[in-house]
Amino acid sequence: MEKSLLIGVTGGIGSGKSTFCNIAQKAGYPILFADDISKKFLGTDPVVKSKLIKRLGTQSYSNGKPNKDFIADKIFSSPEILKFVNSVLHPPTIDYIVNESNLLLQSNLLVFVESAILFEAKMDDIFDLIVLVKSETDLQINRVKKRNNLTEEKIHLILNSQLPDENKESKCDFVINNIKGIDDLEEKSKFVLGLIENLTRIEMDADQL
């Protein structure tokens, strides 16, 4: 008999954590993307909308939809505003992740949650295991510039708003160093996924002792 596990996957922007999650998804495991869930609350939750408009102004929303560029500029220009926006978005996002993952764990051996700010949001205690995907800053910047329409300045602002990897490593169960390219990352990701799959059996065997 096997034991289901909830796995957190974290890493800075452009680190390669989404590649790890894609491999887990291809293996048949459900993935919850914290950023997508947070954006859903940003766009549809009336309480969130009311609080942001009150603090940031009516420019926060246009035609009922969040003005993401405006909000992002506010967030990354002020640590105080970043803290406020996080205080609005994190609680409903975490509640959703807890409830949804509990449902998914009833029918799945492993459930993964991707979050760049897993530790910053203080949600690390909900996971059985945590995987950190890390890389070098220059590589992260180049990856993000290729896939997103972001300036290098904005990428640096995002990176600076996230905890450095060295502050996370000791709190993680697995660390994947992504510096050699996609093939190496995929190989390492599959290896770590295999270890995690084995742990579901080890965990159950230990419980039965």
In short:
The chain has 209 residues and is an alpha/beta fold. Helices cover 56% and strands 13% of the residues.
- Major β-sheet strand ordering: 2-5-1-6-7
Count of alpha/pi helices: 8
CATH top level assignment: Alpha Beta
Total beta-strand segments: 7
Radius of gyration of CA atoms, rounded to a whole number: 18 Å
Count of discrete structural domains = 1
SS class: alpha/beta
Report on this model:
It is built from 8 helices and 7 strands; from the N terminus they run βαβααββααββααβα. It has helices spanning 17-26, 34-44, 46-56, 68-77, 79-105, 137-147, 152-160, 182-208, and strands at 5-10, 31-33, 61-62, 65-66, 110-114, 129-134, 174-177. The two termini are 13 Å apart. It is globular and about 50 Å long. With 209 residues, the chain is α/β, with parallel strands linked by helices. The model has no long low-confidence stretch (mean pLDDT 92). It has one domain (5-208): Rossmann fold.
Question: What are the defining features of this structure?
Answer:
two-stranded antiparallel sheet, 56% helix, 7 strands, 13% strand, Rossmann fold, 5-stranded parallel beta sheet, globular, 209 residues
What topology does this entry show?
Blueprint: E1 5-10, H1 17-26, E2 31-33, H2 34-44, H3 46-56, E3 61-62, E4 65-66, H4 68-77, H5 79-105, E5 110-114, E6 129-134, H6 137-147, H7 152-160, E7 174-177, H8 182-208
Parallel strand pairs: 1-5, 1-6, 2-5, 6-7
Antiparallel strand pairs: 3-4
Helix pairs in contact: 1-8, 2-5, 3-5, 4-5
